[in-house]
Amino acid sequence: MRAKSALLSNARQRAAPGSGRRVTLRMTAVERRAQVLSKAYDFFSEYGLTAQTRALADACGVSQRLLYSLFPNKAALIQAVYESEIAGVFKAHWFVLLRNRDLPIERRLNNFYVEYYDAVLTRRWLRLFLYASLAEVEIAPTYISALITHLLETVVEEACTELGLRVSRSKALQHEIGWILHGAVSHLAIRRHIYQGEALLDEKKVIALQVRAFLHGLPSVLS
Fold this sequence. Notes:
With about 220 residues, the chain is mostly helical. It has 2 domains: about 5-85, Homeodomain-like (Arc Repressor Mutant, subunit A, Orthogonal Bundle), CATH 1.10.10; about 90-220, Tetracycline Repressor, domain 2 (Orthogonal Bundle). The chain is about 65% helix and about 5% strand. A two-stranded antiparallel sheet has the order 1-2. Strand 1 and strand 2 form a beta hairpin. The chain starts with 11 loop residues before the first strand and ends with a helix. Residues about 1-25 have low confidence and may be disordered.
């Protein structure tokens, strides 16, 4: 599979007419690496993770030699994309906000999931995440074990504390209960960005419905 050059701009820029020379945009190694990461993210999210490095280098506007000077192999590039574009967009302070008991849990959950939807569950992020899962690359399992399981436990613990419910000692059960809400919000993004379903309601309203349903159903789930 070969990427189209129209996907990404060439790093070279032509001088003004009549100058008689071509100007090359100079970048530091750090800037070049960041640019390649961003363009690789675009490429992987559109075409998946199985493309050859030559097509990937073309899409990134660099030679294979330069690509390998920045990343020793394709696996290292995929790992760097994961760290910067998958896990990197998750904000650590969200855990602080979720545990702020000065605010009611419904408001905390609404605030968090609206931010999470906008910052993380974008079209590019979802496409890359799903492609990685189909390619059996460790992006999805790593992301879930590193961040999401902790998030699910936090959501369930904070909701149970405010509602006066006893938190199950079973981590597996906590995770499944947390997925009731987290999965609903994630699937909302998939319906809008991947299935391209018609948006009859604003995302914030849908998230508010999902949060309220989760909180109202929690007592019966744990009874």
